[in-house]
Amino acid sequence: MTIYNIALIGFGGVNRALAELIATKNHLWERDLGFRLNIVAVSDLHLGSVISPNGLDAKTLVEANFAKGGFGQLSGGSSEADNETIIKTAPADIVVEATFTNPKDGEPAVSHCRWALQTGKHVVTTNKGPVAIAARELKSLAGANGVRFEYEGSVMSGTPVIRMAEKTLAGAEVTGFEGILNGTSNFVLGRMEGGLDFAAAVKEAQQLGYAEADPTADVEGFDVRLKVVILANELLGANLKPEDVTCKGISDLSPSDIEAAAKANSRWKLIGSAVRAEDGKVTGSVAPKRLALEHPLAAVNGATNAVSLNTELLGAVTITGPGAGRIETAYALLSDIVAIHAAGKSAVTKEAA
Ligand SMILES: NC(=O)C1=CN([C@@H]2O[C@H](COP(=O)(O)OP(=O)(O)OC[C@H]3O[C@@H](n4cnc5c(N)ncnc54)[C@H](O)[C@@H]3O)[C@@H](O)[C@H]2O)C=CC1
Ligand SMILES: N[C@@H](CC=O)C(=O)O
Predict the structure, then answer these.
(1) Which of 69, 87, 125, 283 has the greatest number of CB atoms lying within 10 Å of its CB?
(2) β-strand 94-97 against 266-276: which pairing, if any?
(3) Would you tell me which CATH number, out of the four given (1.10.3720.10, 3.40.50.2300, 3.40.640.10, 3.40.50.720), belongs to the domain 2-158+327-352?
């Protein structure tokens, strides 16, 4: 049985949910997946940082109601978030990056990932910044250091769109996609259809753990733009940057726009899409679209996301599932660790053969 020592960078909704899963499910993972997780370090802007080579009790971490700088009270703790020291020196096999997504330059998360990979630690992340902005560099750094950079949760939370498209649809030749890729804006549109005003709907999405720290990223389309870049670069072989993707969000949609759509048997949805042209050029866009009720994406409600992948060999293949949520996104981190574990095992098998 394998034990993976992990360092959590950011201890907000998602990483706290991962700690909660560790507290309740480690024994099942040990039995069913062949490993257990041991938290050896945590660093959070608000709470400070702590290293404990023997491991921190996940249940205590989740249940203790730490105040600002509260990790300073723990043995091996400090009231400051010293991410660089934690990432470089904690005895971790895997660094779990779940700090704020910075849609402009991906920092400081890009540096967090770099430090981890450079010091021979795997990285799993739900942070869209480093993936959209620096995936090529980080993947090559991971390869050079014999570790992995995994980021399933950066698109559609725990719904396995990236791995599914790359592994299960290998050879089907994806030529484009369109989808609902932001849980918050989809939730907000649905609540507005029910008569709630925009600001109150955004507040609900925040309370439910769907929204970004700054929900402007959700409602202005910036979050979807990062996801379009990630999927286009990953599945269409593009090399897009966020500024290459045209972007308009939902904040200009008024209650009367929503009402007019309903009267015309249609619904507004924020759609992210990309397509590869005959000459190989990939273009991407984010924009609200009024979809007829019969459209397959029109029935996708709440924080659920869906993406239709257009393929040469199968036509459209649509994947739908949770697009946001704390536990749902923590599951994506677990799925990344499962992938690391499986890759480690196949490397060992190859060596033995
Ligand atoms: N919540 C969700 O449904 C999903 C979230 N994500 C992404 O996962 C990441 C984490 O999301 P949440 O946990 O919901 O966010 P959150 O806002 O609840 O937590 C982020 C935590 O990171 C900490 N933090 C921020 N900057 C830091 C820094 N420089 N150093 C150390 N700690 C720092 C904050 O203090 C906060 O506790 C974000 O990048 C988000 O975009 C991705 C998919 C779904
Ligand atoms: N804020 C995002 C979280 C997942 O990426 C969303 O609402 O989709």
Answers:
(1) 125
(2) unpaired
(3) 3.40.50.720
